[in-house]
Specification:
This protein is mainly α. The protein is built from 2 helices and no strands. Helix 1 packs antiparallel against helix 2.
Length: 80
């Protein structure tokens, strides 16, 4: 195998390959998406309570997306 045909392979200088960094970027994007899903639901008036803060998206879906993103980050780091 020549040195030119080793795309995606580490040459010994770096701990991770370019493929790992791409997977890390994807995982980071999933985590950011989860935090975006958590945003909102507040009220402009502090005397008025907004029930949207307890919606499915903010209480259930967003934390699952964030945890999935962190799990994907671990996979991206451990992938050989």
């Amino acid at each position: 195998m020549s040195k030119d045909s080793s795309e995606g392979k580490s040459d010994g200088n770096f701990a991770l390959d370019i493929k790992n960094y791409k997977l890390l970027a994807i995982g980071f994007g999933v985590i950011i998406l989860g935090f975006i899903l958590m945003a909102g639901g507040g009220s402009d008036d502090p005397n008025v309570f907004n029930e949207d803060i307890y919606g499915f998206r903010r209480i259930t879906l967003a934390p699952i997306v964030v945890l999935a993103g962190f799990a994907f980050e671990v996979y991206a780091i451990m992938k050989k």
